[in-house]
Design goal:
The complex is a heterodimer of chains A (593) and B (194). Chain A is built from 20 helices and 23 strands. In chain A, helix 5 (102-110) runs parallel beside helix 6 (127-136). Chain B is of the alpha+beta class. Chain B contains nine helices and five strands. In chain B, a hairpin with a 6-residue loop joins strand 1 and strand 2 (107-110). In chain B, helix 1 packs parallel to helix 3 (39-59). The chains are: A alpha/beta (593), B alpha+beta (194). At the A-B interface, loops of A face helix 4, helix 5 and strand 2 of B.
Chain lengths: 593, 194
């Protein structure tokens, strides 16, 4: 890398600056998209940008290979990788589909990359790759795993033991095989650098004294989220240890219905010392009394996640939330009810993001009075002027409500509405919800993510194509009538990156109309739609830069079924642009055309 | 003789009306623990439980609406960790609360991590740092404590009698209580009529 001062005979004035100066200027350009843009200006900028790039985001791990990544960005320090498609969250993707971490770690280690941060989502992580990671990167600081699987607490033990400078170990909603070993013990006594520790998703017992000792020797610890194996007395001790610096706390499951008065008093005392606490989560299987214990500091909270607190009744939730005047982010269960959302609307004027999850997933209560409806949504939209992001599971909706919401909140960036019963119409007029969603896309000019539900015809897609100019991600289920719906979206939404569709009557005509469109997108998912094998084959032929994957129910490959009727409908289609061609690690149930 | 007596009891249970099934099951249990443990009682317990189950099924509310795969779109981690899932104590998700008389705080333990009653005994000892709980599961008679569990129906049963697999499927919580208190609880210590 030539860092000598150079004058470049170029029309751009900036090129009279030495490289280091340009590089310094680029340091202020943080967003990936902006960095990508500046790298395209000219060769010189491309080169400077390459070598100065520290953070890389890869939205689809199969779009590029680790070797090519390292060739382009040899000095990278921080890598984000995403693996399985989004619908894998809903069991629509076979477990062995792919998204393996190991080749990446292998290549990064061999390439001498000084990796410091790794952030993974929906990847298959093995204990071996965690071990290799822990041994290969001396300065490794931060590991964040979201919705990953394939590893055990043995892998965590390697990270704990070998990453001398570990600052962050953040495990969110992963499926981890808990060997109930002593992984917490594996942090050496010399490890004092922890800033963030989140093991809430671990299911097994942990060594409480090891945890307490670890927290005691971590003066920088700001975020601690424990799992449900941490009883009240231990939690109290932990909190007392780092109370003044704690910003983010995840409470495990400790006993709850009637804690002993003395233990409870100690907890209250510890909570009172947590003056920096801004974010609270956990509370799975915890009784209401223990949530009440946090009321004294509730006015400081900006983030509250009670979406796993299934044992806390609506009225207790309401009482607590009422005190959270500075709340910006709220994740809650629908047991809060419309009345509870009205309280949120009147109390939480700073609210920016709301997620309301369904509490009754098994349809056990036919007369579920506590679920939320359009009433709650309208109340929130009216009361919270800063709201820009919503995920809302509800049992019913109306066009009138959606139109009102659109008028109240034109600033939505993310709007995800899930009406629990597929194809459900406006419950008052019995019409489709086309007009309601149409109002949303028309009013919310900055909308980037949208999920639609309920009874919807092609019309809603006409509106989306017409108005959703900034839309990047669209999720469709049980909607539409003909190919025109999908076509309107593909033709209209210029910034579309991810489109995922299930159980909708879109077929080959829509799929094949504009093959070039998929080069501008990250991926397309279609399951239980009308596309056929023949259509997919044609697409694959016309777009060699796409991986067109067909996922089958049964394990036996489709190879032998080549003579299969091309009119056969494809169960699951996942296609994505890639610069490295067909991947070699696909399991038998996946056919890449 | 004893066996013959038990068979009658099984018959009695089957003849019971659905509404009174629960009460009868409890009585059946009480009768049951008066016998010596072993394959006989296991058989009887199975008999009791299965007849109980049959009646129970008849009383269950109508089958839930057919579920579409992956709908509603709640991620699988969240599904597995929502309350309803947890309370239907499935094997592998066998996380139960364990309370011990005289100890102020509850513990939680993962039943799925134990392979059998011996393992459970060991785990309980470790949990409370107290030897002798495990003994209660095994020999019963000489121990100061008894280990009882609350089953799916909300009844309190003596731990150790049913086959392990059946136990972890139905156990919702564990309680270690003093043998002296157990008598007043509606259970009788094992071997009392031997």
């Amino acid at each position: 890398m030539n860092r000598a001062t150079k004058l470049r005979p170029s029309t751009s004035e900036m090129n009279y600056f030495p490289d280091e100066v340009i590089e310094h200027i680029f340091d202020f350009v943080a967003s990936h998209r902006d960095r990508n843009s500046i790298s395209l200006v000219n060769k010189s900028w491309h080169k400077i940008e390459r070598y100065s790039r520290r953070q890389v985001f890869i939205g689809n791990c199969y779009a590029i290979s680790p070797e090519r990544l390292i060739r382009r960005f040899p000095c990278l320090r921080s890598l984000t990788l995403k693996g399985k498609p989004h619908f894998a969250d809903f069991n629509l993707v076979p477990h062995e589909w792919g998204g393996f971490l190991h080749p990446w770690i292998d290549a990064l280690a061999k390439g001498g990359v000084k990796l410091e941060e790794l952030r993974l989502k929906r990847m298959v992580v093995s204990d071996e790759s965690l071990e290799l990671l822990s041994r290969s990167f001396v300065g490794f600081k931060s590991l964040v795993l979201v919705s990953c699987d394939g590893f055990t607490t043995d892998g965590l033990a390697s990270i704990a033991a070998n990453c001398r400078n570990l600052r962050e170990l953040d495990l969110q909603e992963n499926e981890i095989d808990d060997h109930r070993g002593q992984w917490l013990n594996c942090f050496p006594d010399t490890c004092t650098t922890l800033v963030s520790l989140n093991f809430a998703c671990l299911k097994g017992e942990i060594n409480l004294s090891a945890l307490e000792r670890l927290v005691a020797r971590s003066p920088n610890l700001k975020s601690l989220k424990v799992n449900r194996a941490v009883p009240l007395d231990a939690l109290t001790r932990l909190m007392s240890c780092c109370a003044s610096q704690l910003v983010d706390l995840g409470v495990g499951c400790y006993e709850n219905n009637e804690p002993e008065p003395e233990s409870f008093a100690k907890l209250l005392f510890a909570i009172a010392k947590c003056t920096s606490l801004r974010s609270l989560s956990g509370f799975s299987e915890v009784g209401p009394l223990c949530l009440t214990a946090f009321i004294p500091i509730s006015a400081n909270l900006t983030s509250l996640n009670l979406s796993y607190a299934a044992e806390i009744q609506g009225n207790h939730l309401i009482k607590f939330v009422h005190f959270c005047k500075r709340l910006q982010r709220l994740w809650i269960l629908d047991s809060i009810g419309d009345k509870g959302l009205e309280v949120v609307a009147s109390s939480c004027k700073e609210l920016q993001e709301l997620r309301v999850f369904p509490s009754d997933l098994h349809d056990e209560e036919d007369n579920n009075n506590t679920a939320v409806t359009e009433v709650g949504l309208v109340a929130i939209s009216a009361g919270c002027p800063k709201l820009h992001s919503i995920l809302y599971f509800c049992k019913q909706m109306t066009n009138a409500a959606l139109i009102t919401v659109a008028k109240n909140c034109p600033n939505f960036i993310r709007f995800r509405l899930c009406i629990l019963e597929p194809n459900k119409p406006d419950h008052i007029t019995s019409q489709s919800l086309d007009e309601g969603f149409g109002a949303i896309v028309q009013a919310c000019k900055g909308l980037r993510r949208l999920s639609v539900s309920g009874l919807l015809t092609d019309k809603v897609f006409l509106y989306i194509g017409m108005y959703a100019e900034q839309l990047e991600m669209l999720s469709i289920a049980f909607a539409g009538d003909t190919d025109k719906g999908m076509l309107d979206v593909l033709n209209g939404c210029k910034k579309l990156r991810k489109l995922e569709i299930r159980d909708s009557p879109f077929g080959n005509a829509a799929l094949l109309a504009d093959v070039g469109k998929y080069e501008t997108m990250r991926s397309l998912w279609m399951s239980s739609c009308e596309v056929t094998l023949g259509g997919c084959k044609r697409l694959a032929r016309n777009a060699p830069w796409l991986n067109v994957e067909i996922i089958n129910e049964n394990e036996s490959g489709r190879m032998e079924r080549n003579e299969e009727d091309e009119r056969e409908k494809v169960d699951r289609l996942y296609l994505y642009r890639t610069v490295v061609g067909t991947r070699k690690d696909a399991p038998p149930c996946v056919t890449i055309l | 003789m004893e066996k013959g007596g038990l068979e009658l009891e099984i018959t009695e249970l089957r003849l019971g009306l659905p509404g009174t099934e629960k009460m009868m099951k409890k009585r059946g249990f009480t009768e049951m623990i008066m016998t010596s443990s072993g394959s006989n009682s296991n058989q009887c317990e199975s008999g009791v439980v299965s007849s109980g189950c049959d009646v129970e099924k008849a009383n269950e509310s109508p089958v839930a609406k057919s579920q579409v795969v992956g709908w509603p779109p709640v991620c699988s981690y969240r599904r597995k960790n929502s309350c309803k899932e947890v309370s239907t104590t499935r094997v592998g998700l066998g996380y139960v609360k364990v309370s011990m008389d005289g100890v102020p705080y509850l513990r939680k333990m993962d039943l799925g991590s134990s392979q059998g009653y011996d393992d459970l005994a060991f785990a309980l000892d470790k949990l409370f740092g107290f030897h002798g709980i495990g003994v209660a599961l095994k020999d019963g008679d000489n121990c100061e404590y008894v280990t009882i569990y609350e089953d799916k129906d909300g009844d309190w049963m003596l731990a150790g009698d049913v086959p392990w697999g059946m136990f972890i499927e139905s156990c919702k919580r564990l309680r270690i209580m003093k043998r002296s208190d157990a008598a007043g609880f509606g259970l009788q210590p094992r071997g009392v009529d031997e």
